[in-house]
Amino acid sequence: MLTDNRYGKAENRVVRFYKENARHEIRDVNVTTTLRGDFEAAYTEGDQRQVLPTDTQKNTAFAFAKKVGLDTVEDYAIALARHFHETVEPVSSARVDVESYGWQRVSINGAEHDHTWVRQGPEVRTVAVTAADAGTWLIGGIKDLVLLKSTGSEFADFLVDEYTTLAPTNDRVLATSLDVHWRFGEIDGIDWDEVFAGIRATLLELFATTYSRALQQTLYAMGSAVLERFPVLAEIRLSAPNKHHFDYDLDRFDIENKGEVFWAADRPYGSIHATLQRADAPDAGTAWSA
Amino acid sequence: MLTDNRYGKAENRVVRFYKENARHEIRDVNVTTTLRGDFEAAYTEGDQRQVLPTDTQKNTAFAFAKKVGLDTVEDYAIALARHFHETVEPVSSARVDVESYGWQRVSINGAEHDHTWVRQGPEVRTVAVTAADAGTWLIGGIKDLVLLKSTGSEFADFLVDEYTTLAPTNDRVLATSLDVHWRFGEIDGIDWDEVFAGIRATLLELFATTYSRALQQTLYAMGSAVLERFPVLAEIRLSAPNKHHFDYDLDRFDIENKGEVFWAADRPYGSIHATLQRADAPDAGTAWSA
Amino acid sequence: MLTDNRYGKAENRVVRFYKENARHEIRDVNVTTTLRGDFEAAYTEGDQRQVLPTDTQKNTAFAFAKKVGLDTVEDYAIALARHFHETVEPVSSARVDVESYGWQRVSINGAEHDHTWVRQGPEVRTVAVTAADAGTWLIGGIKDLVLLKSTGSEFADFLVDEYTTLAPTNDRVLATSLDVHWRFGEIDGIDWDEVFAGIRATLLELFATTYSRALQQTLYAMGSAVLERFPVLAEIRLSAPNKHHFDYDLDRFDIENKGEVFWAADRPYGSIHATLQRADAPDAGTAWSA
Amino acid sequence: MLTDNRYGKAENRVVRFYKENARHEIRDVNVTTTLRGDFEAAYTEGDQRQVLPTDTQKNTAFAFAKKVGLDTVEDYAIALARHFHETVEPVSSARVDVESYGWQRVSINGAEHDHTWVRQGPEVRTVAVTAADAGTWLIGGIKDLVLLKSTGSEFADFLVDEYTTLAPTNDRVLATSLDVHWRFGEIDGIDWDEVFAGIRATLLELFATTYSRALQQTLYAMGSAVLERFPVLAEIRLSAPNKHHFDYDLDRFDIENKGEVFWAADRPYGSIHATLQRADAPDAGTAWSA
């Protein structure tokens, strides 16, 4: 009757510094570990003998920040997931999710400071590694990447039914907060930071340069350009709220508003999703099972 | 290359009153609609001719609050999902998610007021309906149900490795914020409110009365009691953070703390999940595909 | 040049149980301590010799949960504030803010369980105590008390200028999330729980029974009734967003909407504030200085 | 008995574009308006004849985004506050609060895009203008400016009492999320953007370069440098949580942790406040009355 189960420690807020010389480095991450395996007795009989405490998982996440290091979050996550999978007997599959927060070195009169940073955001870099008997999967990503363009977007010629009142528009604001996750087809010999930077730049470029007849089209353009430019990727998933900006009617006050003044609404919002996969993509296994 | 896509309107905040007589009724819900189907041209070519605007979906969600009514959120969600599936040609599958917020009638000297309420929470009742060619699925649920017990919980005899430092305990606080979702095996002739009340009562009862050797065991006890008492259910999924309460060390101040004073921590937290399914459960189809 | 300063420890999440017999009691609070006094050298010279660490304040907040107890949050807050003021030499004034979260005992077939609770909300009970040379002030309160009435509210006959487009209405939804704080004129011999329950009931009653020509009027009616019924209070401050509910236009779909279907908007919202004070109220001193 | 009152429209999410040429400009702000004046009859009698609807205030906030423009948020806020004060008869004092969100132009192969931006944060620029009979006050500010330094901070030699258990440290992480607000002594002829950039740079510089014996000392150093470098300011107020980073004990696993691995805690946190004022500062009037 118990058909699936998993458990772990969520949101370990690990901060790691490198202090080999006066110019320090910072890594600021949020680590969640999740184990699957032979834990049924804990559920059905309260028998913990196979259960590695979530407190131990926490200790391990912090210990690996030093032992393995956080030079890249990807290598850290791979090492941590494989540790649980390979050394904890009942574990059949271990997943490690990492969110990585950006910090910019403080500049003083143009000179970067050695050990002081200011937080960047709201965008967050993510990685999810699954280590299982069948292999290791890695999904990179970015979330809360908020983008807006003030023109180059329309929405018209859509399906109409009895509840349709929307007027078509040939020039609107397009704004979204992107969550994008990409699955690597292989994980050896990757320059993680270079690939991440390249994908982020591609997402921004395509959002900016695609003349958008719908957010769907923009997502597809971003996703297919990423897959095209980065053959190491097997699949990409994009989620994007359509953050509506409504023209504010100023005619009522004899003020002209030629696409200049908008109300940025909260709810409801459109919600668009797309998954693109290479035709010859290797199997995803349980890579996407949160 | 486009292997999956969906779109819709998220978080329509619909409030519906019944005012047939002086004693009004309130329904306060958050409605999200999601459509799957033949929308590929919108992604690949920006062709919207098959795309029903999300603005239309919003209008429909509000219109159905009157046309169908919100006597129960379940019947409303079924009607709305089937409307999209049956009347919008390119739609192959429509999903409607509803969160329902609780309001308690204000009492004045013991008498309930006719048209004034105070909001209850944090718990939220949920329903997710999927209408597709193969049939209609309904998943009921409750989220943010925060429970705590001050005794009757232990955690000991667990697996130990080189990173384990946790001391076993034979009396601890057990606290969680439950998200539970249950799939109905059939959806005709159900008294939705009665079943919901019964499941909620069962969850509370089993949390209280199960002597817990781990949160895993408590989840399993809750889930199996629900399936046992409600044969109309096919499956139940439980997610539960372990909201840690740590004994505060008062010995340092010569003050005795016999399980009386705790620090309620935020992060990290344990995270436990279980899925229980009846052996003869009908197929879930795409019921769980958010 | 340093004209004001204060420091403290914010959001100590203290949970206290009473376990004298099988029927346990729970107190779940969030404690913030703030000290004012002779701390200038810490700012101007980095000299900490007068500074009691915020870590010590945390320890004290937890220790007092046992030593003084949390029978009422008011007596706990008074004791803690006076402790800092009276025993820590440089402190001229100590403030203790407590938020108290509600828990309801779980019922099983009508019988209350001894040691299991379900969290209530969103409303939160508050207390703020200031202990200074001139005396001790106590401000009670409630926040996030969300109220709604489906009729008995209008808004018309208002001032009109060139930017006014609002149509008057003689029947609307009135909804708010109240933050109300009341200052006691004296603090000895008060039955804190009884007074709190009475004030809460008065707020609900007046919100329900006042025919509202504006949220301003409703706030005033609530505030003056509280001051009238509770002579022990010197002053009351009410803050209330006007949580707008807009009629959804269903005429477009040939559906009648007679005040039945509304869209509950997020932002912007009205924001109304009122302070009422008894004519002979004692001086507030620094009671309101957060 | 009604001793204070105010009302307004909160959180108008105004977005303004400049499209005079192909290279567009964006202003993304959150505007709150608050009026004080002769509104007593609305409270005591429900008489709205003196009350300008909050809906009108909303319309005005959007209209002024075009009419006055948002070249700088400061000039916009001054114009809007003065409009309410000067043209709405019962208004004795009008306050306009603006939060301004940062957007960075998207770069494609080093070239800035004309009409696409990516959101920057979490820091937010603020302005609060009060227009009253006695004059106009302006308070500039920045909030959610998250800073961290990995060394150059200690905390020792502090006051000790019976509840003190903290060990002194001579090298710790110092992290905070600054809210800083500065009052201008005059408001004519100011280059708002230049002053803002200068103050922000000063705050960052002093946080980085001050060897910190306490967060109090750092705040004072920042505040006094700002007042010194910007004679146009009369006063500055700084609020700063001490976002604790605790050394993670890795000795237990035979791993050395020389100030490299920390746990970033959520709650409780220290909370430090300082107000610095020039000796000859003009009166603040009601500038700080939210």
TrEMBL record, chains A, B, C, D:
Coiled coil: none annotated. Gene3D superfamilies: Urate Oxidase. It comes from Nocardia coubleae. The active site is at 9 (charge relay system), 54 (charge relay system), 244 (charge relay system). This is Uricase. It is an enzyme of class 1 (oxidoreductase). It catalyses: urate + O2 + H2O = 5-hydroxyisourate + H2O2. It comes from the Bacteria. Transmembrane segments: none annotated. O2 binds at residues 54, 242. Catalyzes the oxidation of uric acid to 5-hydroxyisourate, which is further processed to form (S)-allantoin. PANTHER family: URICASE.
